[in-house]
């Protein structure tokens, strides 16, 4: 199992992209939360409110998810991170069923 962490400029964009990934069955579910971010952009430090989706899926969907997020995302350089995760057997079973 993997978790795919993606940041967005708005909650609306996060939900739009996650809904797209759910409809394609590339992810089984996602969790959203607001965050405060600080980062370098074009030679200066920026600070902003962003939104994160933490998507639950399998390694097999990683490349497809990256491609879809890049196509739909408004950032020139979206943050798309893969985190390996372990889970309880019943959750993994549910995840597998939802991704078929």
Q: Could you explain how this protein is built, in words?
A:
The protein has 100 residues and is α+β, with helices and mostly antiparallel strands. The protein has one domain: Alpha-Beta Plaits (2-Layer Sandwich). Helices cover 34% and strands 39% of the residues. It contains three helices and four strands. It has a four-stranded antiparallel sheet with strand order 2-3-1-4, with helices on one face. A hairpin with a 2-residue loop joins strand 2 and strand 3. It is elongated, with a radius of gyration of 14 Å. The relative contact order is 0.30. The mean pLDDT is 97.
- Average the pLDDT over all residues and give the rounded result: 97
Structural class estimated from helices and strands: alpha+beta
* Number of helices, where a helix is a run of at least 4 consecutive DSSP H or I residues: 3
Query: Poorly predicted ranges (pLDDT <50, ≥5 residues)?
Result: none
Overall helicity: 25-40%
Hey, roughly how much beta strand do the residues contain? 35-45%
| Total count of strands | 4
The appropriate CATH architecture is 2-Layer Sandwich
Measured distance between first and last alpha carbons: 14 Å
According to CATH, the fold-level topology is Alpha-Beta Plaits
CATH class: Alpha Beta
Q: Write down the domain tally.
A: 1
Alpha carbon gyration radius: 14 Å
Secondary-structure element string: EHEEHEH
**The biggest beta sheet, please?**
4 strands, antiparallel
Gross morphology is elongated
Question: How would you sum up this structure in a few lines?
Answer:
The protein is an alpha+beta fold.
């Amino acid at each position: 199992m993997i978790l795919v962490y993606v940041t967005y400029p708005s909650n609306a964009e996060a939900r739009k992209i996650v809904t797209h990934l759910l409809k394609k069955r590339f992810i089984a579910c996602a969790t959203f939360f607001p965050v405060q971010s600080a980062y370098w952009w074009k030679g200066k430090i920026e600070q902003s409110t962003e939104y994160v989706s933490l998507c639950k899926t399998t390694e097999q969907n990683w490349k497809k998810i990256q491609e879809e997020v890049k196509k739909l995302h408004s950032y020139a350089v979206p943050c798309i991170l893969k985190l390996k995760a372990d889970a309880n057997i019943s959750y993994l079973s549910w995840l597998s069923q939802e991704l078929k």
